[in-house]
Amino acid sequence: MNKEQIRAYIKVRIALNVQPKSIFDDFCTVLRDQAPSYNTVVRRSKLCREGREEVEDEPQPDRPVTETTPDNIEKVHHLIDNDPYLTIDEIQVEAGLSHGTTQRIVSDHLKLKKITARWIPNQLTDSQRAERFRICQENLAKFKQGT
Questions:
Q1: Is the entire prediction scored with pTM above 0.85?
Q2: Which stretch of DSSP H or E encloses residue 113?
């Protein structure tokens, strides 16, 4: 059953004064693991009792489906290049994007993660790894000389 069929069934059963628990039990018997949750049945039952006639989804507000565009990815990349100490919240404000979109761009598209308050590549290249190893070896040698 699709969403509209489930909603239509709930609507009919509510019109017959059937309780949501009984409707939920019907779904569990017939649909088993594909049954809607009890909370969904209760919520849809309440909407039907309040007079909602439509079983289709309500239209969503006019906004872009996604803010993860190449321009926004480039904008976030530029912000981080200019200041690698920016937080997600600061990038969000600067770029004018939502928190989730900003987080998705940084982690999924730019493949960055925050370490010691700086954004660094999630996966280091071989040359980056070798350079970090060299610096650590130098620091270790300096530390041993100092003690």
A1: no
A2: strand 112-115
Q: How far, in Å, are 30, 52, 67, 79 from residue 13 at the CA level?
A: 15, 14, 40, 55
Please, are residues 55 and 4 in contact by the beta-carbon 8 Å criterion?
A: yes
Q: What is the pLDDT of residues 61-88, one digit of tens each?
A: 665 556 788 999 999 999 999 998 899 9
Q: How far apart are CA 115 and CA 124, in angstroms?
A: 13
What are the C-alpha distances in Å from 16 to residues 9, 22, 101? 11, 12, 45
- Which pLDDT tens digit goes with each residue over 13-41? 999 999 999 999 999 999 988 899 999 99
Given a contact cutoff of 8 angstroms between Cβ atoms, the answer to whether 54 and 86 are in contact is no
**Surface-to-core class of residue 59, CB atoms within 10 Å of its CB (0-12 exposed, 13-18 middle, 19+ buried):** exposed
